[in-house]
Every structure is written in structure tokens, then in C-alpha cells.
Amino acid sequence: MFGLVVRFTCKDQQSAEAFDRLVAETLEGIKEREPGTLVYVSHLVEGEPLRRVFYELYADRAAFDAHEEQEHTKRFLARRGELLASVEVEWVTAQVGKGIAS
């Protein structure tokens, strides 16, 4: 499996609301067209209303590459920049845990 954790900081409350709408739109495409995307979750951060944390898990690198080529993903990547103050990406490899095949 192949995954990443992404931390986003929105510019302001209005940007955070627009970002959440953009994420919801993008998620519809992911659900409909990406069987190799196993987990794609946007989290709110308690006490930090402008922060979002994504956890993404893909069947393999090819599934991630297919995700990046989707029109809904390209639209998300093109539009998010105007809403964000920062982006931090950490690439992760599943090791052990509930729901993770060993």
C-alpha cells in the first residue's frame, strides 16, 4: 500500500469554507472513479478552524498515479492554491494496524 498525510492551512474562514466545498466536490469523483483509492479522508483539527488534515491510502503507486491523472484531482490541485496559506505532505507506508492487511 501507498499513502500520504497532507496538512493544509487555509488563509481565512471564508477560504476554509470554500476549501471544504472543493474537497466535497473532489470526493464525489474519487468515490465514483477510483477503485484503487482505498481511503481518502479530510479531517478537521480541533481548536484550529483553518487547519485540515488528509489521510490518503492507495492500493499501490499506480493507483496514486491514476488518482493524480483524474480531472477532479487536477481541478482540486489547480484551485486549492488560492485558498491555502500552506501545504505539508508526508509520504507514508502502512506497517500494521486494524484494517491493514498483513
TrEMBL record:
InterPro entries xref list: ABM_dom, Dimeric_a/b-barrel
Residue ranges of every copy of the ABM domain listed in the record: 2-92
Gene3D superfamilies: 3.30.70.100
Pfam family for this entry, one: ABM
Protein's UniProt name: ABM domain-containing protein
Species per Swiss-Prot/TrEMBL record: Actinocorallia aurantiaca
